[in-house]
Amino acid sequence: LYVLGLMGVTRRMSKFDDPSLQIWFQIAAFGAVLIALGILCFVIQLVVSYVRRESLRDTTGDPWNGRTLEWSTSSPPPAYNFAFTPKIEDNDAWYDMKANQYARPKDGFIAIHMPKNTGAGFIVAALSALVGFGLIWHMWLLAAAGFVAMLAAIIVHTFNYKRDYHIPVEEVVRTEGERTRLLMAAGHA
Question: Is 78 exposed, middle or buried (0-12, 13-18, 19+ CB in 10 A)?
Answer without folding.
Answer: middle
